[in-house]
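Assess this one:
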Amino acid sequence: MLGTTLSAALLAGVAGCGEPEPFRISEACGVKTDADLIGQLLPRGEKLKTKDTFSEPKQPRCEFEVDGVEQVGLRGDVVEPFVKPLKVNERTMRRLGNPMPADVGDGATISDHAAMAVQACTYKGEKSQYVLSIDGVEDPKDIEERRRILEDFLRSQLPVAMEAEGCRP
C-alpha cells in the first residue's frame, strides 16, 4: 500500500561553493524510489520536509517542502479503465508548459513543470488504470534537463508505485 510518510531524505553534503547537494530521497508516498531522481527535481536547500496529503488506498499523495516552501507534489490514482487521464488533464499540462508525449507506460505527457503517466492494470480483480503524476517542478532550471529527469522518474517510479498499490499490469 502506498503509505503514510515520505522518509529517508538525506542531505548528501555540501558542494564546493557552499551550495547543498541535491536531496537523496529513498521513499515517496510510502514507496521506494530511486534516491537520486526525485531529489534532482527539488531546489537545493537545508531542510526537506515531506507530508502525505489525503493519502488513502488508491490515492496516495505527498508533498515536498524545501526550507519551508512547498515545492513539488506527487500523486497516484487507480482509475476506471474508461477514464482518459491524459485527455482530461490536457489543458492543465498545456498551462504547465509545452506538453509532449513520452514513451512511458501506456502513455505519458511531460510538460515544463509536470509529468503524468498512465498504465493499464488489474486492481482487486477489476480492470483499471494507474495514473502517476508529479507537478510544481521548477528545478533544475534547465528545462530540457528537467524534462529528461521527469521522464526518467516516471519510467522508474510507475511500476514500483503500481506494485505497491496492488495494481498489477
